[in-house]
Amino acid sequence: MGRALLLVFCTLALAGCATRGARPSSAGNPGPAEAGPSATNPAPSQVVGRVIAVDAGTASVIVQLAPYATFSSALSGRTLIARRDDLEPTARLLASPYLRGRVLGTRLLEGRPETGDEVVLPGTAR
Question: Cα(58)–Cα(69) distance, rounded to whole angstroms?
Answer without folding.
Answer: 27
